[in-house]
Design brief:
The chain has 102 residues and is mostly helical. The chain has 4 helices and no strands. It has a domain at 1-56.
Length: 102
């Protein structure tokens, strides 16, 4: 048995750098996987919390007053009326206007 242990030790010593590299690579992969899983869980919990908060808020409805817009659009669609010259008698000039013209 002692010889088997010695042979194993020599084999491990000869491949030690490769074994260490493999262990480091495995450790990095484990860390990356755990990090991805944790980020996913935190994101899922945050999304669930946000969805619950949004649903629990009462809906706020604000009435839209479109009276001014409706009036404007109706004026755009209304036929254009040409103004005819008025047939009313000209108004009399006031005394101040008459004196300034003279």
């Amino acid at each position: 048995m002692s010889q088997q242990k010695v042979d194993k030790y020599k084999a491990d010593k000869a491949n030690r750098s490769q074994i260490i590299k493999k262990e480091k690579r495995t450790r990095r992969v484990e860390i990356i996987c755990v990090t991805v899983i944790m980020v996913g869980l935190v994101g899922w919990f945050a999304n669930s919390y946000y969805a619950r908060e949004v649903e629990s808020r009462p809906a706020t409805e604000r009435p839209i007053v479109s009276g001014a817009i409706d009036d404007y659009l109706n004026n755009l669609n209304a036929p254009v009326e040409e103004e005819a010259p008025s047939e009313e008698a000209p108004t009399e000039e006031t005394s101040e206007e008459a004196t300034t013209k003279e």
